[in-house]
Every structure is written in C-alpha cells, then in structure tokens.
Write a structure and sequence with these properties.
Secre_tail; five-stranded antiparallel β-sheet; mainly beta; signal; T9SS type A sorting domain-containing protein; 17 strands; seven-stranded antiparallel β-sheet
C-alpha cells in the first residue's frame, strides 16, 4: 500500500481523538483533586523546618510558591535522622504512588511540574509507569529520569519544569510512581499532576444510525446501522489490509479473534457512503 494511503489512515486514526476524561492532583484539597496518591513516608516537618516532606503553601528556599493553586509537595534534606529511623534504611527514598486509572484501551497523557535547587550527583529523581492496576513495582513499562548526573557541582532547574509522558492506546489501566533521593541542603517542589484520557469523537459519524462496540474487543466487534452495511475492511497501522468481509446486512458481528493485539482502522462501506473507525484488539 502506498505512502499516501498509509498517511491517510494515520490521519483518520488521529482525527478520532479528542480530549476526554481528566484526573488531577494539585494538592489543594479541592474537588478537582481526583487522582489519588499515597506516600511511602508520611509527610513531616522536622528539625526546625530544615527537614521537609509534604504539602506546603509557602516558600521552600528558592522555590517561592506552588506552580499553580495554593499547595505543592515540598522536599528538603530528605535523607535525615527521622526518615532513616522510620524506614530502617541508611539512604531512604521518598516515593509518591499515584492510583491506577482505568483507560479501557484509549491513549492518555501524563504531565506534572517539578522544580529543584542545588541537587548534586548523589541525588536523583525519576518516575515509572506501569500499564496495569497492580501494586508491585519490580516490573514496569517505562522509566524516565528527571534528574540524574555523574558530574560534580550543584544543579537547579530553570523554575518549574513540565514533565510529559504519553501512554499509548491499547491498555486497560495505567499507574505511576515518582521516586526521589536527596541528601543535604537542597530544595524540591512537585505540583499539578494530571492524566488526560483521549476518547473517540462522535462527530465523524456519517452512516445513518451507525454504532459499534465493544472497543477494545477481544473477539467479536458488533456493528449496526439503520441502513445496509455492504463491506468492512480492516487495516493495521502500516496500512496493510488484514481482514475484509462482505456483509449485506444492517447488523454485523465481525470475528477479529485471529488478529494480533493492537490498533486497527476499520473502513465500513454502505452504498456511496464510507465510515472509518479506530478499533483496539486486546
């Protein structure tokens, strides 16, 4: 299949995507804080305010305020006597665990903001993403470093730094954790965690009364309309036709059980009208 057709199919897939459900956590204790989280170490403020981990509404050293709203998660001298005693570890990590979100196969974007001042080579910040609803972090699907260096010196971000991660379509759930190790007189801030799901737009519907589901599907895709459906053709993301079926019926039960798991474009023909949809095989 030539490049023009492949490009067309990819544009069709992208055109279905619009902004969907959002889950947020900005630590302001409002109704918009819908993405739940926990910390492996309970929030604290010790040693006359020089050892900090938790919600903060005032300046943390050279971090003057939250990225937005009132509160943010502040950190300072996290490897301290309190956390060592609490965890029984000589170099304790501080971890924020964000609750699993059900995606039902649609793509999503995770984003949040980080600010750090005076980090050094022994310090690190990273996040991991897993495409499931478990609680075991021995395995994960993505690992991204926010701060990591082997060089001497002290390092600071240029104000609040936005971090983004794209979750591909085809997964039922997603969860995330943020891992920090920091020792000494440095300052940390974390704010505005957000997961935005994508969903399919109904604005592209052309065939009268057309509907389909379930999507994602494991075996059978059901399609129906108020008019006769003539033919259904399935293409993979490379533009190769992998399945075709003549229908001549207003209701079709298409067996996709033999297709490999992934994302496909289905083209439905009805008289002089065509409909293209994105489907996910699980």
């Amino acid at each position: 299949m030539n490049r023009i057709i492949i490009a067309f199919l990819m544009c069709v897939a992208c055109s279905f995507m619009v902004q969907g459900q959002a889950f947020k956590q900005d630590f302001d204790d409002t109704s918009s804080d819908s993405w739940g989280f926990t910390s492996n170490i309970p929030f604290y403020e010790k040693n006359n305010g020089t050892d900090i981990w938790g919600k903060f509404s005032k300046a943390n050293g050279r971090i003057p305020q939250a990225f937005s709203g009132r509160n943010y998660i502040a950190g300072r001298d996290l490897d301290n006597e309190h956390t060592q005693k609490l965890t029984g570890k000589s170099s304790p990590e501080h971890i924020l665990f964000f609750d699993p979100i059900q995606l039902a196969g649609v793509a999503a974007e995770i984003k949040f903001h980080v600010q750090y001042v005076n980090l050094k080579s022994s310090d690190y910040i990273y996040y991991e993403v897993a495409y499931n609803d478990g609680d075991n972090w021995e395995t994960y699907d993505a690992h991204e470093d926010i701060f990591k260096t082997s060089l001497d010196g002290k390092y600071s971000s240029r104000g609040w730094k936005e971090v983004k991660f794209n979750v591909p379509a085809g997964y039922e759930n997603v969860r995330m954790r943020l891992v920090i190790y920091q020792n000494g007189n440095a300052y940390l801030g974390f704010d505005d965690f957000e997961l935005n799901m994508k969903t399919l737009s109904a604005n592209h519907i052309k065939i009268d009364g057309f509907s389909f589901g379930p999507n994602p599907t494991r075996d059978v895709l059901n399609l129906k309309a108020n008019v006769i459906l003539d033919q259904i053709s399935i293409y993979n993301v490379l533009g190769k036709q992998v399945l075709s079926q003549l229908c001549n019926n207003s209701e079709v039960h298409l067996d996709v059980s033999n297709l490999p798991n992934g994302i496909y474009i289905a083209k439905i023909d009805s008289g002089n009208t065509s409909e293209s949809i994105k489907i996910i095989k699980k």
